[in-house]
Amino acid sequence: MHQISILGCGWLGLPLAKSLIEKGYYVNGSTTSVDKILVLKNSGITPFQISLGEDEIKGEIDLFLANSEILIIDIPPKLRGDSKENFVGKIQTLVSFIEKSSIEKVLFVSSTSVYSDDNSTITEASEPRPDSENGKQLLASERLLQSNTNFKTTLVRFGGLIGDDRHPIKFLAGRKNIENPDAPINMIHQEDCIGIIEKIIQTNSWNETFNAVAPFHPYRKDYYTQKAIEWNLPLPEFNNINPSVGKWIVSAKIKAVLDYTFKKEL
């Protein structure tokens, strides 16, 4: 079967779909926005307007999943500010549709936020202890998917996502009293996100968990100061009084299992 369904054709899902199409796959892609349907269609994606809820799914979810062997779930929780949702409930509702579909393999885009900031070195063998509500709901969703025997699930825990149009220095430039200056960065470029997902599919690496961050971990203060200088932006100022907390994410399994080499510098 040469068809893949991507739930969430956003910042990562859309270029991923385009790349898969270039490699010969047929792609069903979803968006919550009616305005984006034409964008997907013009990119060669079979478009679906689908919205997940805790108790129902709006849109043609059965048709979206039909005839696909692989489902990529790339819909992050919406838990910032006043917007709180039961993300686990959404995934639970989705699972009931996956179970009765042709889907045999699920790739769930997760985050390194499932690990706590305790200044430790993190591998896939480390016990997740999320500090944030975002991390807690992602971890519960991971376990919900991986415990289901109707399909195989691979988890990809991405670090901070950056790309040509997306970088945290744009937000941090000129800010004052930024915490954790001596915490390491754990980031990954969009191009490597796509490369790793495609490598998982190519190597048939299912029922796995991968930490996916670039093997480059300078301290936040050094990294963001240098980026501000490179981009001619106001320098960020850091709080050097409070102790820094963070984590070192190791993604050596990416090389060992997938034989993947990171392509983009940060």
Your description of this structure?
The protein is of the alpha/beta class and 266 residues long. It has helices spanning 13-22, 37-42, 61-65, 87-99, 133-146, 169-172, 190-203, 220-230, 252-258, and strands at 3-7, 26-31, 46-49, 51-52, 57-58, 70-73, 105-111, 120-122, 152-158, 160-162, 187-189, 209-212, 247-249. The strands form four sheets. It has a seven-stranded parallel beta sheet, with helices on both faces. Helix 4 runs parallel beside helix 5 (133-146). The longest helix has 14 residues, at 133-146.
Cα gyration radius (Å): 19 Å
Mean pLDDT: 95
Q: Structural class, from secondary structure content?
A: alpha/beta
Strand order in the largest sheet: 3-2-1-6-7-9-12
Counted beta strands: 13
Give the overall silhouette.
globular
Beta-strand percentage range: 15-25%
- How many H/I helices? 9
The SSE order reads EHEHEEEHEHEEHEEHEHEHEH
Give the termini distance in whole angstroms: 36 Å
- Helicity range: 25-40%
Main sheet? 7 strands, parallel
Return residue spans where pLDDT drops below 50 for at least 5 consecutive residues: none
Question: Could you give a short description of this structure?
Answer:
By secondary structure, this protein is of the alpha/beta class. The chain has helices spanning 13-22, 37-42, 61-65, 87-99, 133-146, 169-172, 190-203, 220-230, 252-258; strands spanning 3-7, 26-31, 46-49, 51-52, 57-58, 70-73, 105-111, 120-122, 152-158, 160-162, 187-189, 209-212, 247-249. α4 links the parallel β6 and β7.
